[in-house]
Design a protein that fits this description.
- There is one protein chain.
- By secondary structure, the chain is α/β, with parallel strands linked by helices.
- 28% of the residues lie in helices and 20% in strands.
- The protein has helices spanning 26-32, 40-43, 68-84, 119-126, 137-140; strands at 2-6, 34-38, 54-56, 59-61, 89-92, 103-105, 113-115, 131-133.
- Helix 3 (68-84) crosses helix 4 (119-126).
- The chain starts with a strand and ends with a helix.
């Protein structure tokens, strides 16, 4: 299966803080599936590093700015790549305002999680593309 995957899970230093979140099972995932790395925030025109952002309803905000337009642009570009490259599903970074699936930070910058999806995860799911978080990688290896 061809899977879109958050580049930070592969070890790419593209997160807001300039770090990565390499996942220990990604190597095994790559042996069974074709992985297509993406970073929706970068595709939306945001720099690395960048101020932390969180979902606040339908918006994405930093402590000082509304960055919804950049997150939506990144989601749209990610969807285009997913469709162009015939990816069948996506494995995305949990809790992220773009990639989070099931839970995201609530926009108060207090570390509080709320039910919801990131902008990219939401758009992919709306187009029928299954979205998995990194905690579900083990299930994809079954």
């Amino acid at each position: 299966m061809k899977l879109l995957i958050s580049a930070c899970l592969l070890g790419t230093c593209c997160r807001y803080d300039g770090a990565s979140k390499a996942h220990p099972l990604v190597g095994k995932l790559a042996k069974r599936h074709t992985l297509v790395p993406i970073c929706p925030e970068q595709l939306g025109g945001l720099a690395t590093p960048r101020p932390p952002a969180e979902r606040r309803g339908d918006r994405v905000v930093t402590r000082e700015n509304d960055v919804t337009a950049q997150y939506r642009r990144g989601a749209e570009e990610t969807l285009k790549l997913c469709q162009l490259l015939d990816c069948e599903a996506a494995v995305l970074k949990e809790r992220s305002p773009s990639c989070g699936h099931g839970q995201v930070y609530d926009g108060t910058f207090s570390g509080t999680l709320t039910a919801g999806d990131g902008v990219t995860a939401e758009l992919l799911a709306a187009h029928g593309i299954p979205v998995y978080g990194e905690s579900q990688i083990e299930a994809l290896l079954q």
